[in-house]
Amino acid sequence: MVLIITGIMFASAMTEAKMKFERFHKLIAIEVPTKKIDVVKPKLEVKIEMPVVKNHSTFLDAIGFRESTNNYKAVNQFGYLGKYQFGRKTLNAIGFEDVSNREFLTNPSI
């Protein structure tokens, strides 16, 4: 009997607490005004004129000049070697093993 009365009292207290909670939240409800946002899509007009490469050797000469001014003995600050500034891993991958800066500077035919 005591348990039943305690249960009823607990349920009543919980119901009353829930009602107070709901009333409290209804009082502090805040409405935030919203604005319509327009999305602007820019129009991109890019005109890039690229030089026309007419053959393979002209293309390779242009790359060599850009990388090392066509200097086969060039070594940059990062250790890239030759006219086209290849790294050691790239040179190893295409078959040139054990290439060092010193060998390359003294023997540019590597």
Question: What are the defining features of this structure?
Answer:
single chain, 110 residues, mainly alpha, Lysozyme, elongated
Walkthrough of the structure:
This protein has helices at 2-27, 56-68, 88-93, 101-106. The radius of gyration is 39 Å and the shape is elongated. The chain starts with a helix and ends with a helix. It has a domain at 56-106: Lysozyme (Orthogonal Bundle). The mean pLDDT is 76. By secondary structure, the protein is mainly α.
The assigned structural class equals mainly alpha
Distance between the terminal alpha carbons, to the nearest Å? 101 Å
**Beta-strand level of the residues, as a percent range?**
under 5%
**Which architecture of the domain at 56-106 does the CATH hierarchy give at level 2?**
Orthogonal Bundle
Number of helices: 4
> What is the gyration radius calculated from CA atoms?
39 Å
What's the SSE pattern?
HHHH
Describe the global form. Answer: elongated
The CATH topology of the domain at 56-106 corresponds to Lysozyme
Helix proportion: 40-55%
Short description:
With 110 residues, the chain is mainly α. It is 46% helix and 0% strand. The protein is elongated, with a radius of gyration of 39 Å.
Topology:
Elements: H1 2-27, H2 56-68, H3 88-93, H4 101-106
